[in-house]
């Protein structure tokens, strides 16, 4: 690779469930800044999973998630809340086997994979790497994320710690959307839902006017659906998965959680779906369990009501005109979630006709463009 290339930037959004990346560069045809997703393992997002092997190999993303089906104890999933809980002291050990690993180590592996993927595709290095974080994170949590980014770059020649910048997710999402004035960003995340009011000025800068967190997230819903599947499964199978404690029981729970997540995504568009129960040797296959759209709705409705109440409480503390509302995150992709929140709270939906603004790629692309503009690349965004 060559020295840092001033023609492109990279942004990484390390979420609880998924990690995505976006690049921004200058279109050689007209000089405008353009953005696009980073592709890793054939997809534009990767599971936020890391797995270490006894031989020293560290897997990140989809290979780690798949390897975890055989060795679930070695797979680290949903580690970002541990990163967010950093206090500035020694980092918490998430596991000691097969190697001591912290949430900073997990973030480092995921960031490094995205940097290598896009830099390898281009043959050059980015001039700036922007790492996204919730607006509600403390300074120690942000510094832990910065440490992960610097560790990822430290192993790459011609890079510098100064190439790492941080930006909170709501301002990144607002930057992707564009416009000016007040905007309410509702991020339905994996671990929780963050509500943030962003004040956007005419010059493209922005600030956080208010922020709060609601403890409703996609991972909690997945856990509840998995427990519902076990409730409907044969009793001996369910008891062993829940209480067996043996390796095969751990493997079965790991596979069931993956199957339930896929089923949830299917249920968003269909009336019902069958979830195959994972193998649990030496027993024969236990069959399938059916989940319906009604099952999903019954579990989702209380969480959406809690989010709506959180929105009302947060914005009720502010003066001035009611902001538009940008609803994004994994749960927002389900039918009528955005519309229900808008009807329940009375806030108009803001997406500017740009479907990318509400996608998983939205904040990362906004952050990459923000970095490009900070560096004075190109003529700005079209």
From TrEMBL:
InterPro entries: ATPase_NBD (IPR043129). PANTHER family: CELL SHAPE-DETERMINING PROTEIN MREB (PTHR42749:SF1). This is Hsp70 protein. It comes from Actinomycetospora cinnamomea.
């Amino acid at each position: 690779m060559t020295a840092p290339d001033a023609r492109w930037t990279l942004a990484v959004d390390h979420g609880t469930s998924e990690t995505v990346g976006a690049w921004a560069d200058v279109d050689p045809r007209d000089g405008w800044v353009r953005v696009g997703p980073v592709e890793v393992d054939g997809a534009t997002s990767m599971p936020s999973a890391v797995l270490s092997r006894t031989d020293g190999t560290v897997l990140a993303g989809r290979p780690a998630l798949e390897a975890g089906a055989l060795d679930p104890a070695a797979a680290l999933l949903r580690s970002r809340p541990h990163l967010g809980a950093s206090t500035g002291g020694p980092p918490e050990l998430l596991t000691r086997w097969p190697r001591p690993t912290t949430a900073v180590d997990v973030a480092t592996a995921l960031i490094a994979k995205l940097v290598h993927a896009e830099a390898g595709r281009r043959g050059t290095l980015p001039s700036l790497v922007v790492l996204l974080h919730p607006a509600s994170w403390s300074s120690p949590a942000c510094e832990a994320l910065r440490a992960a980014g610097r560790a990822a770059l430290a192993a790459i020649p011609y890079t510098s710690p100064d190439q790492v910048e941080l930006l909170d997710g709501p301002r990144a999402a607002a930057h992707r959307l564009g416009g000016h004035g007040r905007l309410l960003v509702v991020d339905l995340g994996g671990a929780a839902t963050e509500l943030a009011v962003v004040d956007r000025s005419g010059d493209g800068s922005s600030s956080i006017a208010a922020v709060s967190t609601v403890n409703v997230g996609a991972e909690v819903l997945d856990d509840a659906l998995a427990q519902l599947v076990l409730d409907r499964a044969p009793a001996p199978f369910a008891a062993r998965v829940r209480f067996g404690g043996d390796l095969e029981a751990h493997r079965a729970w790991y596979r069931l959680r993956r199957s339930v997540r896929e089923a949830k995504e299917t249920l968003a568009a269909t009336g019902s779906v069958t979830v195959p129960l994972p193998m649990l040797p030496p027993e024969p296959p236990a069959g399938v369990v059916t989940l319906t759209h009604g099952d999903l709705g019954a579990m989702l409705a209380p969480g959406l009501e809690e989010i709506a109440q959180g929105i009302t409480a947060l914005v009720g503390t502010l003066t001035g005109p009611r902001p538009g509302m940008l609803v994004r995150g994994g749960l927002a992709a389900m039918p009528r979630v955005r519309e229900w929140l808008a009807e329940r709270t009375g806030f108009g939906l803001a997406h500017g006709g740009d479907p990318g603004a509400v996608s998983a790629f939205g904040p990362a692309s906004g952050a990459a463009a923000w970095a490009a503009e900070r560096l004075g690349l190109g003529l700005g965004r079209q």
